[in-house]
Amino acid sequence: MSVDATNPATGETIGTFEQLTDDAVADKIAIAAEAARTYRLTSLDERAAGLRRAADILDEDSESLAATMTAEMGKTLTAAKAEIAKCAKGLRYYAEHAPEMLADDIADADAVSAARAFHRFQPLGVILAVMPWNFPLWQVIRFAAPGLMAGNVGLLKHASNVPQTALYLEDLFRRAGLPDGVFQTLIISSKQVEKILRDKRVAAATLTGSEGAGRSIGEIAGSELKKVVLELGGSDPFVVLPSADLAAAAKTATTARCQNNGQSCIAAKRFIVHTDVYDEFAEHFVREMASRKVGDPTADDTDIGPLATEQGRTDVVELVDDAVAKGAKVLTGGTVPDGPGWFYPPTVISEITTEMDIYGEEVFGPVASLYRATDTDDALRIANDTDFGLGSNVWTTDDAEIERFINGLDAGQVFVNGMTTSYPEISFGGIKNSGHGRELTAFGIREFCNVKTVWVAEQP
């Protein structure tokens, strides 16, 4: 079997890659298991040196790697270069801060009648990472950087439409001097994942992807009693209250919705606006959305490139068409452009009801759903009326409202007067159908550690 890399801006095949056989996968697992046995014994300084070299290589490869990412999944060159820079930062962040994150956590020895008591963080071993195409480098690095610094080794099953980026990642860590087998890419089908996760040599898994994929991985891991971290997307609310700077909110809302061509799990998707400022905000927002240029992702003046796959665009079209058929109003966009490639314009729709599929489903494209809230209570109700709980945004300058929404929003992250994004310095993850577990910061590095309790008796 083989997989094709297809340029979403043209629909042309740009490469064909053979999938690994089951026997070849078994060999890869054996190599990973042997690497895990020895890599866990390396020093933090050795691991950090490897991550710093990887960061330097990313800086050097930025131009060519960005072109590869753009050709494979359609993000603009500007966005691709920014993603590469973010990955280099993430590698350096963990190289610098992992020693303090993994230092022994000292307990109260007197309270437990010991001479010494502490917790030590040790690697679990081989970790399977099942990763998506939308941020093909960053999604992997934000697992790999903390995982490798903790002493784990990685097996990457990347999305089938970004095989070149997937193979680059293995080569990156090899060129950075990490030992053989510490990070390997598996060009495989989704059907081969279960057998890998059930292999006793694989200790745990992490997945970023759809709710369905997360449920599948979670069920397999649960039956094998293996640790799993799941990040499964979201339908993030962006709440605008009367005290907000409406022009600034609308501009940020447009960036939040259209980032990465609208294909981001933490992109704001539902824009919930207090009735007192609804009309004014809508005017600003529609104008901002309509001003974004859709086109060739390699051009400097392009804001939004194509969606990554033809099926992805079909899914977006079906959600918008269903809403319109049931009474929603299109305020801008909403029509597939002529020509090659899987483009879709920035779109704003209003008058959405619970009968529409778009009310409960995540839209993975530059489509914004606009809601009118009768008051602050109604805004919070609408924001929480979703099965997802990843990121959230609220715009207000009222301190009481800020505290209320920080406490009241059902989400793993709350951003006030800004847009949800990810940083190595703050944790990332969700609740409800957005998954469980945390990435980044010390929370992320410890997800795949054995938190070992150590109790040492007083000497006689």
Give the low-confidence spans.
none
Give the DSSP E fraction (strand runs of 2 or more residues).
15-25%
CATH architecture of the largest domain: 3-Layer(aba) Sandwich
CATH topology of the largest domain: Aldehyde Dehydrogenase, Chain A, domain 1
Kindly report the spatial arrangement of strands forming the biggest sheet.
Answer: 12-13-14-11-10-16-17
Number of domains: 2
Instruction: Enumerate how many helices there are, as a single number.
Output: 14
Count of strand segments: 20
State the helical fraction: 40-55%
N-end to C-end Cα span: 66 Å
CATH superfamily of the largest domain: Aldehyde Dehydrogenase, Chain A, domain 1
Write down the CATH class of the largest domain: Alpha Beta
**What shape does the CA trace take?**
globular
Structural class: alpha/beta
Calculate the mean pLDDT score and round it.
97
Radius of gyration: 23 Å
List key phrases describing it.
alpha/beta; Ald_DH_N; globular; Aldehyde Dehydrogenase, Chain A, domain 2; NADP; 41% helix; 20 strands; Succinate-semialdehyde dehydrogenase / glutarate-semialdehyde dehydrogenase; 460 residues; oxidoreductase; 2 domains
Model description:
There is one protein chain. The chain is α/β, with parallel strands linked by helices and 460 residues long. It has two domains: 254 residues, Aldehyde Dehydrogenase, Chain A, domain 1; 188 residues, Aldehyde Dehydrogenase, Chain A, domain 2 (3-Layer(aba) Sandwich), CATH 3.40.309. It has 14 helices and 20 strands. The strands form five sheets. It has a seven-stranded mixed β-sheet, sandwiched between helices. A six-stranded mixed β-sheet has the order 7-6-5-8-9-19, with helices on both faces. The protein has a three-stranded antiparallel β-sheet with strand order 3-4-20. Strand 1 and strand 2 form a beta hairpin. Helix 3 packs parallel to helix 4, helix 4 packs across helix 14 and helix 8 crosses helix 9. The mean pLDDT is 97.
